[in-house]
Amino acid sequence: xxxxxxxPELIRELQLxxxxxxxxxxxxxxxxxxxxxxxxxxxxxxxxxLERCRVxxxxxxxxxxxxxxxxxxxxLRGCAFSLDDKxxxxxxxxRGIGESIAVRLAQRGANVALLATSWTPNSTLPGTIGEAWxxxxxxxxxxxxxxxxxxxxxxxxxxxxxxxxxxxxxxRVDVVINNASTHWPKTVAETDRRRxxxxxxxxxxxxxNVTTACMPWLRLAHNAHVLxxxxxxxxxxxxxxxxxxYTASKVGMSLLSIALEARWRDAGVAFNTLWxxxxxxxxxxxxxxxxxxxxxxxxxxxxxxxxxxxxxSPANFLSGRAFSDRDVxxxxxxxxxxxxxxxxxxxxxPVSDFFVAQ
Length: 358
Hints:
Layout: H1 8-23, H2 35-39, H3 44-62, H4 69-79, E1 87-91, H5 96-107, E2 111-116, H6 129-140, E3 146-150, H7 156-170, E4 175-178, H8 193-218, E5 224-229, H9 237-240, H10 244-263, E6 269-275, H11 283-295, H12 301-311, E7 322-324, H13 325-331
Parallel strand pairs: 1-2, 1-4, 2-3, 4-5, 5-6, 6-7
Helix pairs in contact: 3-4, 5-6, 5-12, 7-8, 8-10, 12-13
């Protein structure tokens, strides 16, 4: 792939070619490799283990509080996919949850593309692409494992340019993390059109732009995942009344994930959402509640660890789910979450996220 100029026209041509094959009634059915064939593991004991894990993985999404430590741990040991040399695209990667996920996946062997708009330091909003790039480089001690691209994901042209840079360098895309979001947790009366447009454009349209641009490459990947950082799409008046527009944008991201999963259900690409069970210490958290709320929050590392466990899972059957970070980790056998607390001396549970049912 290194000798090929990856242009938006080529990407669209690939998409049209593959879509026309799908719509042709005489075309052969799409090839969907069994997970055991992909892994090259055909021992009889693994079939039984995989079936138990198949049930366990589905249960994580359907019954978030269920304890599945042994099954999921066996699933990860025997059936999880390696991230070595896979290419992960992370949006909103200059700070907070996006940066933490990028660093975690780089640490586990992935090549990471950081997409964000923060290029120069900002005294009111810490975090830049360069700083995130440095963190990824340090955990891998390899400058070639990460690239940073300044990209406004609301602009399809900039998304195409960023994807061109990624594919030129690595020739593939395996995982997309739709993390970029802007927030304004205020009432409708306090939200002007400019802020409303920005939230909808970044949160919903941005996720759409990046996902659809990457789909031709994801469909060629083995065990491709699209993970969107958004809550379960269960709107509640407790969320809608105080910050209706922000809620609409985040639930819109979740509904988009569901719609894309329905569209590409047979393409071997998993679409899931992930959301923190408790408040996470980010710039948005500080904006909402200041230092007091930050101290009663968890670090972004808890979301990053949950994201890692999702994207190494077989895409064939772990798709169309709405996960919470705590429940994913609990299902892996983790029961002590105190190390994720911002304040190690916190004497009570961190503050619940306001998108989580109490």
